[in-house]
Write a structure and sequence with these properties.
163 residues; alpha+beta; 3-stranded antiparallel sheet; 4 helices; 32% helix; binds iron/sulfur cluster; binds zinc ion
Length: 163
């Protein structure tokens, strides 16, 4: 379900082509228009999916990766600008297709290479199938579904009001 991504995908990236050299600085720009131009290039890139995945695995919380900027990457990982985990500051979205939390599911899987971390927590998007690893986001997804289930149960148990 989840395999680490090899950085070799970058050889096929649009941003590594000589013809797109002039756009490189836009990937780390704070100017909205330049950032938009960088993202636009990513959306034409054949390796966008691998790129988002690699950025998440390697906690790239600055710049544009796979059409997503630092805020979107941080949100998917549930971390702040220092890379520290933040609990339920904002519920995560799918970093590949931007599906909302209601479309996300969390999984706990074995982690044979993980040393003392014998399991890892993954988040899966039911809309596009994208899977990424984030313990905090997986917990946030669980909290979101638990809250929704709680609200639904309360609604069902509410006694009908007398007229
Ligand atoms: S998705 Fe964007 S950042 Fe990633 S390789 Fe392609 S153009 Fe470069
Ligand atoms: Zn998705």
């Amino acid at each position: 379900m989840w395999e680490p991504t090899d950085r070799s995908y970058q050889e096929q990236g649009e941003c590594t082509k000589k013809s797109n050299e002039s756009l490189i600085e836009y990937f780390f720009s704070n100017e909205p228009e330049e950032k938009y131009a960088a993202k636009n290039l990513c959306f034409q890139c054949p390796v966008r999916r691998d790129c988002v995945k690699w950025a998440l695995e390697n906690k790239q919380i600055w710049g544009v990766w796979g059409g997503r900027d630092e805020n979107e990457i941080r949100r998917a990982l549930s971390v702040n600008a220092d890379g520290d985990e933040i609990r339920r500051d904002r519920y995560p979205q799918c970093p590949y297709c931007t599906a909302r939390t209601s479309k996300l599911q969390s999984h706990v899987v074995e982690n044979p290479e993980g040393g003392r971390w014998t399991t890892m927590r993954l988040v899966e998007c039911l809309d596009c199938g994208f899977v990424w690893r984030s313990r905090t986001s997986a917990n946030a997804v669980n909290a979101y579904h638990a809250e929704r289930a709680d609200k639904t149960a309360k609604k069902l148990n509410r006694k009908p009001t007398k007229r």
